[in-house]
Amino acid sequence: MFELKAQKRDIFGKNVKNLLNQGTIPAEVYGSGKENIHVSILASEFKTIFGQAGESSIINLTIDGKTYPVLVHDVQKDSLGNNFIHIDFYQVRMDKKITTHVPLHFEGEAPAVKEKGGVLVKSVEKLEVEALPADLPSSLTVGLSSLDDLHKSVHIKDISVPSGVRILADPETVVATITEQVQEEVEVKEEVIEGAPVPEAEEVPQETPENTEVPKEKKGS
């Protein structure tokens, strides 16, 4: 499991900007039937742990000497998406199954991409699973070596799942498939040859309408 330290905080509202300026992140720890705990965490430490644990691995969060098993339930970032500005931790019971989303890790290369010019399309990035907190995997591996021909697919039922983990989705759901490359239509334009004679428009003689008298030319008086 991963380890992280936090401190209780009594700074709220607009004043949390002071925490952010000092390199700490305001956070909340909550759980079913548990009282919320307001804490702050060093931004540098959280970035490191979150990069490894993600949202599906248990983190032992130590607050004032007491340890709480938690999952990262939600994170908020600034408008540029570079810095964390708030974290929600969910306190879990180690003896009770929970549901959470686990990311998929696509392993290897699909032979049909290299040998037959196919395109690999990933249709699922995360799967919802149920397990005891200690059994939660940080990711599920999807092997691509079986995709050796166009239109072949990998389904949820093909994914190897650790003991004690159950995927809460249709086993027939496609997570990756090989499609053909789309051929772009080439627009053919007529080539204009410079200096080529341009055909003249044919002059159509005007007909005199029937029963129409053409005035005779008058002689000078």
TrEMBL record:
One of its GO terms (cellular component) is cytosolic large ribosomal subunit. Residues 190-221 are annotated as: Disordered. Pfam families: Ribosomal_L25p, Ribosomal_TL5_C. Residues 4-89 form the Large ribosomal subunit protein bL25 L25 domain. Gene3D superfamilies: Ribosomal protein L25, beta domain (2.170.120.20), Ribosomal Protein L25, Chain P (2.40.240.10). InterPro entries: Rbsml_bL25/Gln-tRNA_synth_N, Ribosomal_bL25/Gln-tRNA_synth, Ribosomal_bL25_b-dom, Ribosomal_bL25_C, Ribosomal_bL25_long, Ribosomal_L25_dom, Ribosomal_uL5_bac-type. GO terms for molecular function: 5S rRNA binding; structural constituent of ribosome. Signal peptide: none annotated. Residues 97-180 form the Large ribosomal subunit protein bL25 beta domain. Keywords: Ribonucleoprotein, Ribosomal protein, RNA-binding, rRNA-binding. It comes from the Bacteria. CDD domains: Ribosomal_L25_TL5_CTC. One of its GO terms (biological process) is translation. Belongs to the bacterial ribosomal protein bL25 family. CTC subfamily. Part of the 50S ribosomal subunit; part of the 5S rRNA/L5/L18/L25 subcomplex. Contacts the 5S rRNA. Binds to the 5S rRNA independently of L5 and L18. HAMAP family: Ribosomal_bL25_CTC. This is one of the proteins that binds to the 5S RNA in the ribosome where it forms part of the central protuberance. This is Large ribosomal subunit protein bL25. The gene is rplY.
